[in-house]
Structures are given as C-alpha cells and as structure tokens.
Amino acid sequence: MDSKVIPYGRQDINQNDIDAVVETLRSDWLTQGPAVEKFESMVASRCNARFGVAVNSATSALHLACLALDVREGDRVWTSPNSFVASANCARMCGAEVDFVDIDAASGNMSVAALEEKLNSAVKAGQLPKVIIPVHFAGQPCDMAEIQKLAQQYGCNIIEDASHAIGAEYRGSQVGSGQFAEITVFSFHPVKIMTTGEGGIALTNNEELAHRMLRLRSHGITRDTAYMEGDSDGGWYYQQVELGYNYRMTDIQAALGLSQLKRLDPFLAQRKLLADRYVALLQTLPVEPLQRLPERTSAWHLYVLHVEASRRRNIYDGLRAAGIGVNVHYIPIHLQPYYRRLGFKAGDFPEAEKHYGQALSLPLYFGLSEESQSYVVSQLRKIFQESHLN
C-alpha cells in the first residue's frame, strides 16, 4: 500500500513544484506579480478560452462570476443539489434566491429533462432564473449543448461549475472553452486534478466580464482610465468604482499552479487508468459505478459507486476501519439546515436524495498504486462476503 491510510484524494507535489515555489519566494513578487498573469494566460490557453481570472478559491470564482453577470437581490439562480454548498452559496452571497434542478441518476449531473420541465413551469409563473449553474459532477461534463439550448430559449446565462473537471472534454471541446457558457470555474484545491494549495479560476471569452471580475477580485479598484470617473491624478492614481473583495491569488500559489499545469495530461491519464482498472476489479461485486456518457471525456476527479442504501454505512465504516479514506459526495445542498430554513425539505429532489443514500467515493488520485487500489477492492469484497451480500 501507499501508506497506512489511503485517502480518497490527495495532491502530488514533486521537486519541480517545490523549486518553482522557492524561486518565487526568492523573487521580488509574492503577490500581484507576473506569476498570476502567466498562470491565467496558460490555463486559458490550455482550455481554449480568451481570458482567465485567478482567485483564492473556486468559491470566490463562483461569487465573482455571479457578480459579473449582475446577479442581485430579487434574481433567481438554479444549480444542482448534488454538489458542494459553494455552487448555491455564491448566488446567496449576491442576495439572490436559489433553487435546484434534480439530477440524472446515471451520471449525477443536472437532468436536462428536469431542467426543461422546471423552465416550462417557471416561465408560466414569471419566475425564470437569471443564471443556471450546472455542475460537472466527479469530472464528467453535463450535457452542455442541451442545457445551453434551453438557457438560450428562456433567456438565462450559464456559469459552468467545472471545479471537478479541468482537462475534461465535451463533444471534442475542452471544458472551459466558453462554447456553452458565459463563464467557467475551476478549482485547484489539493484533492482536485491539479493544485495551487487553495485557489480557483474563472474563464470567459467576454472581455467585459473578464475586466469586471478582475476589478471585483481586488476591492472594485481600477487603474484603467477607461473605467474611471473624471481624469487621473497621475501614475499612482486608482479609483474604487464598485464594491469588491480581496479574492486575489498569490504569486506563490500561481507558481505552484504553473508547475502543476505542466503535468496536467499525465495527471488525467493516470486517473483514467485507475478508473478503468476499478471497472475490471469491481465487476463481480454488487456495486454500480456512475455511467460514462457518450461525447465526453471525464477528468475523473472522483470514482463514485452506488451501493445498497441500507448497507452503505456498514461499508463506509468497514473501509475506514481498514485504513481506506472513502468519502460520500454529496449531501444534497437543499437538505443542509441553512437551506431547510429557506423552505426546502426532504423529497424536493428525489434523485439527488436517492444518489446521496447510495453514494460512496473510492480513493482516486495520481500516485495511487495498483497495490493500494487492489487493497481497497479486496477490503470491499471482504465486507460484502462478511455480510453475505455477494
């Protein structure tokens, strides 16, 4: 095995990463310097987008994306209940009302059929969303062409929450290219495909949206006279033209990200190999992996199984006791106490709730050895045998 405890996900840091960070630490710039701009440019280029705005977390990127699209009090934003809370919180932080679209059981992603039905009802009630936030769960893209078609039909904007999905592809296009969304957000948390420690980025092909997110990530301040009121007093001059935030990424983080980005393709390839190997190892066990859908290439952030709901806790506890850091993704957002207080309740989104009751994420990360992966499956098999489930 790799170690005494096998985590469900972890970063892979090599000497080149360390050297890149040390070089930045010895430079004149620790923040607001050239590494951030280079990182933005390189990530945008990798994803075939025009502009990148790097920030201190994907949550911040989602918030900036909502602000750039003028989400405010009285607006509505819809997202998936099968996600981390940030996918909905970003809209609440703008004062908007949040609602959810149930998921497709096969993939865990936003259901196109459920979205269409909900939009049909919303237009009749005069309650259409300003923004729809599909979430590429576990790294597999949503059916973005169909979601975009509906969004255009009903006059909605799209923010892709691709926190799990840098390097993923949909219909031959890189996720983040902007073909199907106004803004795409990636996460660089340590358990994601690549890392900057903490960090995120928003990609867009719209220059005005990019400029606004750049201002908003730094207190709403600009030095660009095109956005100022009146004349500049000189080279030192700046203006705060709107209320913004301190969401900046440091050059230290960006240096790590630039080094990690060079290994993105090997990271993706290894995750795919491990996912393929799980398929072979799990064939005789009573588990149901999420389906791989056509016309898309997953980034394989997570490897999620469905197991019998009544046995999930026993399986989880048994694997944890064996030193295997399995996890569950996700507790439906609408069932969190904060969202229950807004009026959501159990039964509102049955497919997301059913998924939660059955979901189990097995370890998957670059550096997971075949020995450790085999150990994970052998312990899973042992639990089934002991429970007389196979």
Notable characteristics:
alpha/beta; seven-stranded mixed sheet; 390 residues; globular; 15 strands
**CA(first)-CA(last) distance:** 25 Å
Tally of DSSP β-strands: 15
The biggest sheet amounts to: 7 strands, mixed
Portion in beta strands: 5-15%
Rg measurement, Å: 22 Å
Q: What quaternary form is this?
A: single chain
Question: What's a concise summary of this model?
Answer:
This protein has helices at residues 15-25, 34-46, 58-68, 86-92, 112-125, 144-154, 207-216, 251-261, 264-281, 312-321, 337-340, 350-358, 370-386; strands at residues 51-55, 76-79, 97-100, 131-133, 157-161, 169-170, 173-174, 183-187, 200-204, 221-222, 239-240, 288-289, 296-297, 303-306, 359-362. It is α/β, with parallel strands linked by helices and 390 residues long.
Explain what the structure shows.
The protein is of the alpha/beta class and 390 residues long. Helices cover 37% and strands 13% of the residues. The strands form 4 sheets. A 7-stranded mixed β-sheet has the order 1-9-8-5-4-2-3, sandwiched between helices. The model has no long low-confidence stretch (mean pLDDT 97).
List strands and helices in order, with pairings.
Blueprint: H1 15-25, H2 34-46, E1 51-55, H3 58-68, E2 76-79, H4 86-92, E3 97-100, H5 112-125, E4 131-133, H6 144-154, E5 157-161, E6 169-170, E7 173-174, E8 183-187, E9 200-204, H7 207-216, E10 221-222, E11 239-240, H8 251-261, H9 264-281, E12 288-289, E13 296-297, E14 303-306, H10 312-321, H11 337-340, H12 350-358, E15 359-362, H13 370-386
Helix pairs in contact: 1-8, 2-8, 3-4, 3-7, 5-6, 10-13
